[in-house]
Amino acid sequence: MSFTYPVPENELKRLEALRKYRILDTAPESEYDHITSLASFLTGCPIAYISFIDEQRQWMKSKKGLSLCETDRDTSFCTYTILEDEVMVVEDALQHPVFKKSSLVKGEPFLRFYAGAPIRDEQGYGLGSVCVVDTEPRELSNDLKRGLHELSSVTMKLIKTRNVLDELVAVQRELKVLQGMLPICASCKYIRNDDGEWKQLESYISEYSEAHFTHGICPDCQEKLYPGI
After folding, report:
1. Distance separating alpha carbons of residues 182 and 202, to the nearest angstrom
2. Which pLDDT value is given to residue 114?
3. What are the chain's domains?
4. Which of 8, 143, 91 is nearest to 99 (CA)?
5. Exposure string (b/e) for 128-142, b if CB count within 10 Å is 16 or more?
6. Which among 75, 163, 171, 201 counts the fewest CB atoms within 10 Å?
7. pTM to 2 decimals?
């Protein structure tokens, strides 16, 4: 399959890593919006966004000053950013041999300046980027490049934390916990379940929890049942 844009050599594993974090197409979250707001404030750029590069599209988790939610991958600046280790800067897209052809430059929102810091996981896969954009050409100081790079690192930490919390919620849903009042027979000690069935204590607890049983004899019962032992 041929592409009109560069594709990382580890593309299949990169996509697998991206989907593992289950971040694509999720609802807006304030933590990510704080990052885009800070990126815009620090650099003075009116537009900032956090994007992730899927197989054929660029999807934006958070954005400021931009109405787009996603674009085709072949128009995306971030498609190139994920190939880099450092911040990628395009001072004037109209003068760039590749980006001057982009529909985002030739049409709305008429991008001229772009700077993006790659978001990389622990295995080094480029998942997306934290970007700032302007409709006028400009430069970016080394200090601001470092700041943008730090924001991409914070974003990766947020993604990992979010993923761990999702896994904990999933585990919690699977746990069976005994709560509330248990109707138990005063004579045989059978327990009545929600369907009105009476079950042995062991069967009931095994059904509604993860507990397992081993059996023995307490001292009082041993003396009563087996006085000679």
Report:
1. 14
2. 97
3. 11-172 (3.30.450.40), 178-229 (no CATH)
4. 91
5. bbbbbbbeeebebee
6. 171
7. 0.72
b/e for 1-39, b at 16 or more Cβ within 10 A? eeeeeebeeebeebbebbeebebeeeeeeeebbebbebb
Map tokens 């993006």 to a residue.
116
- Report CA-CA distances (Å) from 172 to 33, 71, 167, 227: 28, 36, 9, 47
CB contact at 8 A, 62 and 50? yes
Amino acid at 50: I
